[in-house]
Amino acid sequence: MPGSYLHAFTKPTRNEFISLVRGEGARVYDARGREYIDAMASLWYCAVGHGRREIADAVARQMTTLESYSNFDPFTTEITDRLADRIVGLAPLADARVFFCGSGSEAVDSAMKLVRQAHVLAGRAQRTVILSRMRGYHGANYGGTSAQGLPLNKAGWGPLVGDVEQVAADDIEALSVAMSKHGERLAAVLIEPVQGAGGVYPPPPGYLRSVRELCDKHGAYLIFDEVITAFGRLGTWFGAQAFDVVPDVLCFAKAVTSGYVPLGGVLVNGRVRAPLESDPSFILRHGYTYSGHASACAAAIANLDILEREGLLARALRIGARLESGLVALRNDGLIAEVRGTGGMWAAGVLPGHDAQKIRDIALDNGVIVRGIGAETNAFCPPLVITDDELSRVLDVYADAVMHAAH
Question: Are residues 335 and 226 in the same domain?
């Protein structure tokens, strides 16, 4: 019989789980004492690795000083302002401000609301249409669910948010046609620089730059969903910097705290903030109880300190090179069908007739955590502190799992 906890993205009838109790670096341990190399940074987020006392101590200091306080008018908290300044200083967006929330899903929904509100305040209330891409994953709240390009995740929830449409993932012509069709009703284009949860698909060469040019041509805002790619995963602070394409709005979460405490946010550039600030009587009637939560901000600052001090952005590129070469070798040996990725996030497309979930389970039995995405893809997104020996073990175990899954 299932337990009391209703798990996310899990069959509600499932009643057996691997109960994790401890983590250190790139390894986690279950209640039976079994050790696993975490090749997914939990769920794309634990960049600095598990068990970092520095972050725990920073959170404890904040909690015993002021755990948090509402940042609704007229209050703020000092550490929240400090983190905002730091993130704005790292971001490529010009004249930016940052809005804080609690997750990537909240960040995407906030971005969608902010761009529509900015158009209204700029006298363009008809601009409500938001375009996104097939294969895109934009969180599980109603806005992000509406923007998803993963049909199974949209089924069964009833009416979704209106004026949100998807186009083919890598077809710049299809996007151009859709933008022209909506004309003066177009508000924004929402895309992941690298599609993550949909299977790890980097953009075709020049695609993101073309999207930027189309948004400028049509008067639309460009939103980057960088919930996975921000804070080091691609070897830069933000994916926008890795591709040298700057959006108007940028969503982040996950690696901003490495998941030690939930935190997300939205960066807006001068084009978006100007309408929001144009009327002194305007009140931004959007926010969350825990927006700018002080203890979460303390975790983020400590996490960013580690990323900088230990050179983990550069490490992401070395990790990626090792994963790429190992997976390409498996493809060349005929064990997998496809290799996709960039920076520190990669995927193997499995052979026809193979099941990525079965491969995942075999790898788990041998002490390595990879992610199964549908039946076709296994994903790799390890903590940026993973060692070369641990990476080699991941690839060896994965190769063995692929071979055993064929039998």
Answer: no
Q: What is the pLDDT of residue 405?
A: 86
Alpha carbon distance 192, 201 (integer Å): 10
Task: Find the CATH number of the domain harbouring 169.
Answer: 3.40.640.10
Q: Give the per-residue pLDDT at 292.
A: 98
Which two structure tokens, joined as six digits, stand for 302? 């400590």
Residue owning tokens 């020996």: 389
Write out the H or E segment, with its range, that includes residue 31.
none
For strands 377-380 and 20-24, give the pairing. Answer: unpaired
Q: What is the rounded CA–CA span in Å between residue 297 and residue 263?
A: 8
Largest CA distance in the chain: 68
Burial of 175 (0-12, 13-18, 19+ CB in 10 A): buried
The predicted-structure confidence for 177-212, as pLDDT tens digits, reads as follows 999 999 999 999 999 999 999 999 999 999 999 999
Domain, as residue range, for 383: 311-405
Closest to 247 in 3D by CA, of 203, 194, 198, 209: 209
| Structural domain ending residue among the three candidates 281, 309, 337 | 309
Pair 259, 265: CB distance under 8 Å: no
For helices 294-309 and 53-66, the axis angle rounded to 10 degrees is: 150
Domain count, the chain: 2
Distance separating alpha carbons of residues 211 and 179, to the nearest angstrom: 10
Distance of CA 314 to the CA centre of its chain: 19
Residue 129's alpha-carbon distances to 6, 191, 257, 268, 403, in angstroms, are: 34, 14, 32, 18, 47
**β-strands 186-191, 221-225 pairing:** parallel
For 206, residues 6+ apart whose C-beta sits below 8 A from its C-beta are none
Distance CA 209, CA 193 (A): 11
pLDDT of 407 strictly over 70: no
| 306, 312 contact by CB (below 8 A) | yes
Residue 356: CATH number of its domain = 3.90.1150.10
Whether the CB-CB separation of 401 and 366 falls below 8 Å is answered with yes
